[in-house]
């Protein structure tokens, strides 16, 4: 009896071999059954969008151990849930299927007559065919700002085409929500941010389900750079959560009075971090309690300025710029429909053409938020910040050698580029048409080469911005379908969803699935070099993120050290003694008498290597001054000097030198007052 089981196992083995041979002779087994095509889901919904990409996504790293792939630094997957929920129509995904996901807002039926935001942003009367799936006659389109562009399968196509990083900025705007005619939920910004974060994780689970379980899908939300590297090495898409909103933590401003506190900022940052957010903007479109914004121009700028007034009780205020950087000119264009929302007797002010800078920079609360982000190793988006605010942020980061700075979609003054790269930050350009994108990329190519960094892009889809239009069926160097992916491992054909097939040449960048086509257009028009820089985008982004996580604040040798000064301004209510400049409190300061030749001396208590000194000036700053070092407090040598000080936060770097004493020697005042320093910090390097 012991032989029968053995014979049965042998018979089964023989039968299995015969079946395998037959399968090989008759044709391949289905890929999902074979389990080899890991990038193909085993349970995609039906019906659904086509992907129209064949070939295995690249995995692993290059010969230098670097990840490869494109990086989109600025996308808005779930902005259909923002602004009251009815500004952007359609969903990223739906358990009920594509027909439920890709349908128009109810008020757009039957002909778009009530698509008010559509004709405000796109001109004309806003009329359009509201039917999405399956016909898609009029949307999505490169110039329609009110319809879903981020259907999950379109994002999948971008991933299959070589993208490996996507920053999903959770976005909303309470003022736009409050004034828009249609809404189905609260306008509270943080409520919307929480919902969009939840839906991001829901989308991850939705994709995982197609691939057989948790962690198996291509859409992976990551919360640290090591996790992101692992995901990209597996050939999947690393998704990072960001935030772009006008009133983070409730930090709006009413009549120049902040509506939040430091406790609100700490609580808000902790909550966002727990949600998985790792990068964010501190202000967007409207001045708030944290920072002033970089203006919008033309009629749109006027309309947003109206929103600024409705939100804060004040219009933008401008001044002449003090450096080469400037904010966008507001101009004096009219925006009649927006201006009609103003109270009777209130008019948008006119602005001098020579005054292009926002008077509002980084507030004390804003600086507290910046330093709070640094403590949490988060990355700060400087796009949308006024140049005054951006300058202060870069000063702070340079003083701390903190690399976590991003410019994701061409809202930074280009003159900041080298400072961002010098810190170790990363830059992406808005998704312009290929000619414009190449021209802007060429302007900064030498800097990328110097700092050895790749390049990114910010699609800003679902972000009410407008996208590259068609270059035409007869345009020179047009995209020819099918084409190979940049790595050469996949073939990409025209994208089809339902009854509609899109061609970048004649449709433009209508939705996210056409990102690979747009990159091919850049290659055809501008050559391989720009695309090669883009293909290094994922690695450079992760370099910035990883360096931010690894950053350690340097020891401040001057903290609470004994200090002396040539003089201290007398005040019956507070002290301006020398020790106030090293007490770690930016709310106190040393202030000298009102004459040029003044000094502040710090005793480090023992000899240390000194290679960096940071000075946080009050308005009463030095135009000309020196940093001097001494071993004994008697013999001094100059380590660093300037004759063009402009106040703010100065960081003096020089060759490390052994010293016990550090002296700031004021030579010429920058104001009629004396010299005044909130804090002086001294570091070895």
Automatic annotation (TrEMBL):
<protein>
    <submittedName>
        <fullName>Coagulation factor 5/8 type domain-containing protein</fullName>
    </submittedName>
</protein>
<keyword id="KW-0732">Signal</keyword>
<feature type="region of interest" description="Disordered">
    <location>
        <begin position="36"/>
        <end position="58"/>
    </location>
</feature>
<feature type="signal peptide">
    <location>
        <begin position="1"/>
        <end position="33"/>
    </location>
</feature>
<dbReference type="InterPro" id="IPR008979">
    <property type="entry name" value="Galactose-bd-like_sf"/>
</dbReference>
<feature type="compositionally biased region" description="Polar residues">
    <location>
        <begin position="49"/>
        <end position="58"/>
    </location>
</feature>
<dbReference type="Pfam" id="PF22633">
    <property type="entry name" value="F5_F8_type_C_2"/>
</dbReference>
<dbReference type="InterPro" id="IPR000421">
    <property type="entry name" value="FA58C"/>
</dbReference>
<dbReference type="InterPro" id="IPR032466">
    <property type="entry name" value="Metal_Hydrolase"/>
</dbReference>
<feature type="domain" description="F5/8 type C">
    <location>
        <begin position="550"/>
        <end position="685"/>
    </location>
</feature>
């Amino acid at each position: 009896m012991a032989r029968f089981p053995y014979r049965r196992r042998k018979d089964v083995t023989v039968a299995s071999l015969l079946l395998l041979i037959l399968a090989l002779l008759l044709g391949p087994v289905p890929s999902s059954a074979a389990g080899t095509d890991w990038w193909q889901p085993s349970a995609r919904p039906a019906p659904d969008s086509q992907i129209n990409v064949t070939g295995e996504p690249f995995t692993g790293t290059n010969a230098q151990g670097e990840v490869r792939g494109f990086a989109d630094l600025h996308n808005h997957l779930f902005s259909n849930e923002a602004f009251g929920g009815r500004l952007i129509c359609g969903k990223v995904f739906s358990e009920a299927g594509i027909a439920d996901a890709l349908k128009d807002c109810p008020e757009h039926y039957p002909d778009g007559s009530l698509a008010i935001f559509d004709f405000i942003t796109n001109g004309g009367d806003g009329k359009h065919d509201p039917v999405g799936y399956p016909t898609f006659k009029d949307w999505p389109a490169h110039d329609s700002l009110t319809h879903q562009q981020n259907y999950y399968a379109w994002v999948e196509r971008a991933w299959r085409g070589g993208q490996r990083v996507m920053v999903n900025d959770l976005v909303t705007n309470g003022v736009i929500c409050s004034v828009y005619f249609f809404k189905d939920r609260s306008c509270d910004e943080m409520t919307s941010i929480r919902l969009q974060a939840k839906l991001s994780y829901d989308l991850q689970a939705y994709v995982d389900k197609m691939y057989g379980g948790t962690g198996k899908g291509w859409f992976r939300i990551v919360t640290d750079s090591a996790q992101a590297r692992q995901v990209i090495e597996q050939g999947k898409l690393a998704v990072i959560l960001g935030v772009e909103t006008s009133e983070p933590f409730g930090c709006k401003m009413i009549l120049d009075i902040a509506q939040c506190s430091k406790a609100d900022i700490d609580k808000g940052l902790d909550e966002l971090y727990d949600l998985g957010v790792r990068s964010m903007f501190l202000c967007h479109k409207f001045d708030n309690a944290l920072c002033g914004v970089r203006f919008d121009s033309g009629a749109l700028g006027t309309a947003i300025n109206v929103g600024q007034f409705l939100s804060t009780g004040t219009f933008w205020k401008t001044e002449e710029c003090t450096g080469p950087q400037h904010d966008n000119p507001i101009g004096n264009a009219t925006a009649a429909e927006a201006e009609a929302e103003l109270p009777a007797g209130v008019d948008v002010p006119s602005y001098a053409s020579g005054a292009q800078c926002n008077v509002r920079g980084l507030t004390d609360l804003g600086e507290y938020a910046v330093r709070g982000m640094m403590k949490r190793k988060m990355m700060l988006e400087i796009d949308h910040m006024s140049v005054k605010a951006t300058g202060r942020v870069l000063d702070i980061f340079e003083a701390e050698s903190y690399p976590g700075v991003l410019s994701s979609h061409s809202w930074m003054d280009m003159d900041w580029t080298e400072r961002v790269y010098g810190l170790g930050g990363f830059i992406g350009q808005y998704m312009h048409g290929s000619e414009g994108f190449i021209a802007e990329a060429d302007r900064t190519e030498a800097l990328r080469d110097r700092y050895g960094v790749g390049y990114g892009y910010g699609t800003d889809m679902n972000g009410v911005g407008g996208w590259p239009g068609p270059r035409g069926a007869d345009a020179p160097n047009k995209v020819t379908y099918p084409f190979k992916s940049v790595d050469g491992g996949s073939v990409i054909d025209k994208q089809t969803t339902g009854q509609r097939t899109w061609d970048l040449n004649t449709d433009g960048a209508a939705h996210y699935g056409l990102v690979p086509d747009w990159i091919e257009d850049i290659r055809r028009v501008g050559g391989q070099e720009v695309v090669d820089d883009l293909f290094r985008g994922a690695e450079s982004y992760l370099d910035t993120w990883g360096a931010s996580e690894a950053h350690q604040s340097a020891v401040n040798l001057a903290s609470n050290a004994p200090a002396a000064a040539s003089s201290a301004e007398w005040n019956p209510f507070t002290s301006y003694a020398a020790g106030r400049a090293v007490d770690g409190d930016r709310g106190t300061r040393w202030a000298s008498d009102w004459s040029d030749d003044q000094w502040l001396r710090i005793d480090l208590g023992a000899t240390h290597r000194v290679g960096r000194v940071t000075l946080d000036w009050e308005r009463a700053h030095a135009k000309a001054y020196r940093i001097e070092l001494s071993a004994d407090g008697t013999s001094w040598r100059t380590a660093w000097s300037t004759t063009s000080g402009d106040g703010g936060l100065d960081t003096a770097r020089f060759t490390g030198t052994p010293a016990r004493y550090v002296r700031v020697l004021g030579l010429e005042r920058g104001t009629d007052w004396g010299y005044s320093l909130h804090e002086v910090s001294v570091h070895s390097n």
